[in-house]
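Table S4 entry, Glycosyl transferase family 2.
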Amino acid sequence: MKKIHVGFLFSHDYEKLKLSIPPVYAASDRIFIAIDENYITWSGNKFEVDPDFFEWLKEIDTDNKIEIYRDNFYVPSLTEIEMDTRERHLLSLKMGIGNWLVQVDSDEYFFDFEKFVLDLRKHDHYLDNPEKNKIQIAAFWVILYKYTDNGILYVDLPMKAIFATNYPNYNLARRTSSRVIYTNNIVLHESLSRTEKELRFKLENWGHKRQVNAGFIDKWIKVNEKNYTELRDFYYIEPNRWKKLNYFPSRDLKEIKDFVVNSKVLTISPVYLALKNFGQWFKFLFK
């Protein structure tokens, strides 16, 4: 118990796991990958899997810590987001209550997972009786929006995101209604930055399928490295949540990481973090 267990969902973009698993491998105690036994998305669409991926998985699993969890995750009577939430719950049960239950999506790349683990360890006492002391731990996304000819457009402010909990009472994907503890950790989120064909497939098969606003894809197609300053409101659900984009003059993820680390705009200030955590502590003080 009190282990660092990391879970991934395996779907049509499984190849991105080759970027998201290595950053968390060394500091995790065990890694679980949830795979639909019929290779079906939450929208009921079949996807193909290259067997070579599992050979790659064996090669990188030098400590024998990766476990495949196969189950039927497609339930036609549920909506896509309900299946998303259900699969994450089942995965966390497999990972074991009493451990830190960390869920990372295939297109999310931790900059410093070792630091995130150290931050989790500061709160190990919440694992003693997790059902009575529910908590969730957040980091911050730097969201990659779109690849351009010479670089990448990104959302110009870090966005909070839940990555871990001690008790998986999820009510929307990996989020619960419990108190949030915010940590100063950055995760690069390759959210929408893919080809138009790949993006359209994602929009048809992910948990947020029914929430995407009608004008999103047209704006995504239109925006580029020359006109991004002229446009506003880019979020796929509530557009004004992502008000502005900015631009990385590179498509190299290593260079982007260095840029983010040294960016004042993309840095989480200690004051901001303290205020967020005080607000959460006060909100749940009498609950």
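DSSP finds nine helices and ten strands in the chain.
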